[in-house]
Design a protein that fits this description.
There is one protein chain. By secondary structure, the chain is mainly alpha-helical. The chain has one domain: lambda repressor-like DNA-binding domains (434 Repressor (Amino-terminal Domain), Orthogonal Bundle). The chain has four helices and two strands. A two-stranded antiparallel ribbon has the order 1-2. A hairpin with a 5-residue loop joins strand 1 and strand 2. Helix 2 crosses helix 3 and helix 2 packs across helix 4.
């Protein structure tokens, strides 16, 4: 959801987060349990790009466009 909101492909996210394409694919297809440190790096990458993760009444993401 966050990746799509930014218009990023799997390769884009992997490169920006410094992880492999395989790692992102496995996370997204739930083929493996994310390692906490890797998950943190991916989350920080999204947040640096303007994504806000919401966990309120409607869990999801918001994009804060940079000016």
């Amino acid at each position: 959801m966050a990746r799509a909101a930014l218009g990023w492909g799997v390769r884009d996210l992997a490169k920006k987060a410094g992880v492999s394409v395989t790692t992102i694919t496995r996370f997204e297809t739930e083929q493996s349990e994310p390692i906490r440190a890797t998950l943190t790096v991916v989350q920080q990458t999204f947040e640096a790009a303007g994504i806000e993760f919401t966990n309120g009444d409607v869990p999801g993401v918001r994009v804060h466009r940079r000016k």
